[in-house]
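Appendix B. Worked example

We walk through a single record from start to finish. Start with the input: the chain for tryptophan--tRNA ligase, Linderina pennispora, length 330.
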Amino acid sequence: MAMRVFSGIQPTGVPQLGNYLGSLQNWVKLQQNSTADDSLLFSIVDLHALTVPRSPQKLRQETLEMAASIVACGVDPSKSLLFRQSAVAAHTQLLWVLGCITPVGWLNRMTQWKSKLQQQGQLVGQTEALNVHAPAAQGLLAGLFTYPVLMAADILLYKATHIPVGDDQVQHLELARDIAEHFNKTYKTRLFPLPAPLLTESKRVMSLRDPQRKMSKSDPNEQRRLTRSAGSRSMRKERPGVANLLAIYAALRETECEQAAAELRDCSNAQLKEAVAEAVVQFVGPVRSEMQRLLANAGDLEKMLAENEEKVNGIARANWKEIATCVGLQ
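Next comes the structure step. The output line below is what the pipeline stores for this chain.
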């Protein structure tokens, strides 16, 4: 059975190693293992990035840098459709349609929303039960609350059948499935398939300074992450936990953690860190060079994105016409 795969990545912050091990490595593997009948749609989700305020110039630059990073890591735009989310207007059109049938209670249960709400509650000294109606929620933005509906729109617009997800994104996919099923029942149709998860193989790369936290490219503390543009000297200074180091080493060597542990079992902590640093340097060097080459020819990169976006818009317009007809807009 042919697959239609959709996956997105935000252009926020400096691209870091966790992006590759958590998302891009799996995109490359999907591309390598796909058949001629499969469709792979990989999006730089710049609309989602608007939930974190930044200057227009910075967002444009980071979006282009992410495109260069994705290609440099091995995603071939001639085999996969790499595009900017904002270049396809139907994403936000479908967001509105889905938002009109999605209960607030579903969104209020989302773990990421509850986490942000809890943080806000602590800031304002609120300790009682928190929900969208709580005083603590008044300082949060509506885009953050409806973020999961846009994620569902991203997926359902293309009638995606399979979605690569890590364990921290399963809940968002489950919501997309619930919304798809609710839409189909409401409008007595089978328009949207229920997308299945493709659980990513790589372990999450945790924060370097605090191995209990996931590595984040938006983390303000640069010592907690490894950027793909980092120099080899800075890489060798990081001090994460042993398990996290082994996970990074195994993922870069494309082997199992158990095999990596056996290979490095006689190493001291210092030797382990050196081995991981060397693996990172060997990976980062070629990727950094290719990124620099691509960004030096930004016009070619923009042209590639525009060509792919024209193809993606063709798919989106056809599907949107079906959706609009289904709900009575056409």
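Two observations about the output. Residues 210-296 form a domain with the Tyrosyl-Transfer RNA Synthetase fold (CATH 1.10.240.10). The first helix runs from residue 17 to 33.
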